[in-house]
Amino acid sequence: MTTKKNTLDDVLIIEENEIIENLNIIKIKKLNYSIIQIVQDFKIFANEAMLFGLHYQVKRPQGKLISVSMGEVFNVIVDIQEKSTTYGYYKQIILTEKNKKRIWIPEGFAHGYLVLSENAIINAKSTEYTEQNLQRCIKYDDPEINIQWPIIVYEYPIGIGPDVSENDTQGMNFNNAEKL
Predict the structure, then answer these.
(1) At a CB cut-off of 8 Å and minimum separation 6, what does 141 contact?
(2) Cα dihedral angle (47, 179, 129, 32), rounded to 10 degrees?
(3) Least CB-packed of 18, 45, 81, 149 within 10 Å?
(4) How far apart are CA 126 and CA 65, in angstroms?
(5) Domain membership flag for residue 3
(6) What's the whole-number average pLDDT of the chain?
(7) Element (H, E) at 90
(8) Are strands 50-57 and 163-164 parallel, antiparallel or unpaired?
(9) Residue 111 and residue 18: Cα distance in Å, rounded?
(10) Do residues 133 and 125 lie in contact, with contact meaning Cβ atoms separated by under 8 Å?
(11) CATH no. for residue 159?
């Protein structure tokens, strides 16, 4: 059996008009994925300037379908597959309730986001259950990847920059992080 290594070209941006499909397996299967099974569906309620990631899961990597039902969120997807032609490269996209875009992130990618609006609701469907002991994090400001995050200025707490959890500040440098 041969498996296809994903590249950033396999990160699918889905655009809809008036009718929004929450999930269309046929569209995703066109990328040559043999089996897509969504096992977990969750919502994340986030506040302005909240920065999450870059997160991924080892041993049981997750494919994810991400959308935003309220607010505006800057998303980053990083290829962490050492044998991929786009290893270490990233793609960015802004998802909003108004642009109705969604992203399909195949297994083998780290995902992070920054909330640009006052509040946001992020919807995520995944192909594997989240297991905390298998979760990994790459530093959002890793110099090797060099992501160009939007600059956030917010009033409370007074400051400039993102609101990053302690867990995310403890992320690994890209070169030292466990890869897929």
Answers:
(1) 147, 149
(2) 100
(3) 18
(4) 7
(5) no
(6) 83
(7) strand 90-96
(8) parallel
(9) 27
(10) no
(11) 2.60.120.10
CA dihedral 15, 104, 78, 101 (to 10 degrees): 20
* Least confident interval from 64-68, 98-102, 140-144, 158-162: 158-162
> Which residue from 123, 83, 81, 88 is spatially nearest to 106, judged by alpha carbons?
81
Structural domain including 62 reads 8-176
Q: Look at residue 63 and tell me whether its pLDDT is greater than 70.
A: yes
Query: pLDDT, tens digit, for every residue of 116-159?
Result: 999 999 999 999 999 999 999 999 999 999 999 997 665 555 45
Report the pLDDT value the prediction gives residue 24, as an integer from 0 to 100. 59
- Averaged pLDDT, 92-112: 92
CB 37 within 8 A of CB 58: no
What H or E segment, with its residue span, contains residue 166?
helix 166-169
